[in-house]
Sequence to fold (208 residues):
Amino acid sequence: MIIKQIIVGSMAVCCYIVACEKTKKAAVVDPGGDEQKILAEVKKMGVTVEYIIATHGHPDHVCGNRKIQQATGAKIIMHRADERFFGKPEVKHYFSMLGLEASPPADVEVAEGDEIVIGEVRLQVLHTPGHTPGGMCLYNPPDLITGDTLFVGGLGRTDFPGGSHEELLASIRTKLLVLPPETIVWPGHGYGGHQSTIGEEKRSNPFL
Fold:
C-alpha cells in the first residue's frame, strides 16, 4: 500500500492518498481543502481515484469532497452514523457557522468491520465514535489512519454536537490501543506531530 500525507486547508487537515501499488487505484481520505494541490499529487502519483473517504463528517475534513468528486468521479464513503447525523437540518446549520462546505451525500455507507477495497488494498473500518457519532479509523497493517479520534500526544475534541468524551476514550482503548504497538498512527491533524505509533501513544499520550 502507498500512503501519501498532504496538509491541506485553513485548518491544516492531514489528507491522505491511499493507493494500490499494483493496480494504481486510489482513495483520497479527508480532502479538507486545497483540492488542486490534492489533484496535482494524484496526477504526480499516476493513480486513479475511485473513492473519497471521510473519517468523519466535520466540514474541515469533507469540504473538498464535492470538487474532488467532480474532478474524478469517485464515490464518497462515510460511516452510516455520520451520514445520518450530519444530514440533520439543525446539525447542518450549526456547522455552517464554520464557513466550510458540507459534503455531498455519501454514495456508500459503511459500518464496523466493513472493508473498503482499493485494488489489492483492503482498509478495515474501525468504528470509533466519540468525536462524532460515526467517526471511524482505517486499518491496513501496519498503517492506521485515525482521523480526529487519536492525534500524536492528543485526541479529538468532544465539545461539538454529537461528541462524547467517555465514548471517545472507550473507542480508543477498545479499538486502537489493542492493535500491535508497531502500528503506525496517521492522524487527522498534526497538532503534536504528523506520525506516531500505537506503542508510543500508549506510553506517552497524556490523555490516555
Remarks:
- The longest strand covers residues 2-8.
- The domain at 2-204 is CATH 3.60.15.10 (Metallo-beta-lactamase; Chain A).
- The helical segments are 35-45, 59-62, 65-72, 80-85, 89-96, 165-176, 198-204.
- The chain has a mean pLDDT of 97.
